[in-house]
Design brief:
The chain crosses the membrane at residues 6-25, 32-53, 59-78, 90-109. It contains four helices and no strands. By secondary structure, the chain is mainly alpha-helical. Helix 1 packs antiparallel against helix 2. The chain is elongated, with a radius of gyration of 14 Å.
């Protein structure tokens, strides 16, 4: 289950990098990709929550991913309303998510 979470978050990260390229180029983001990115990231958080019911919780990683998700919700609303997502917010969201991913990898490597 932990490996599945890592794979899911890696997919979400790849989609996020793709979306970030649009934000940095000041282009409109493809809404379908935005929705898929959010859904995949939410699935990753859900899989970590399920994992935490069965095994030791990667709590720091989970909390950081939830923090990144809150920023993602804000950016989603901003984007859907037709506003340009601030570059600093998109970069901050990505950096927070990367921190969560690194902590998740560290947790996984220290438990195998």
């Amino acid at each position: 289950m932990l490996i599945l979470s890592i794979i899911i978050f890696a997919i979400a990260a790849a989609l996020g990098v793709y979306l970030l390229s649009y934000v940095l180029a000041e282009k409109n983001t493809p809404k379908g990709v935005v929705m898929i990115h959010g859904g995949v990231a939410a699935l990753g958080i859900i899989s970590l929550i399920i994992y935490s019911f069965l095994y030791t919780t990667p709590l720091a990683s989970l909390l950081i991913f939830i923090l990144a998700a809150l920023g993602g919700f804000f950016m989603f609303g901003w984007d859907i309303l037709g506003h340009k997502v601030p570059k600093s917010m998109a970069l901050g969201h990505g950096l927070i998510a990367v921190a969560g991913f690194i902590l998740l990898l560290y947790f996984a490597l220290s438990h195998f």
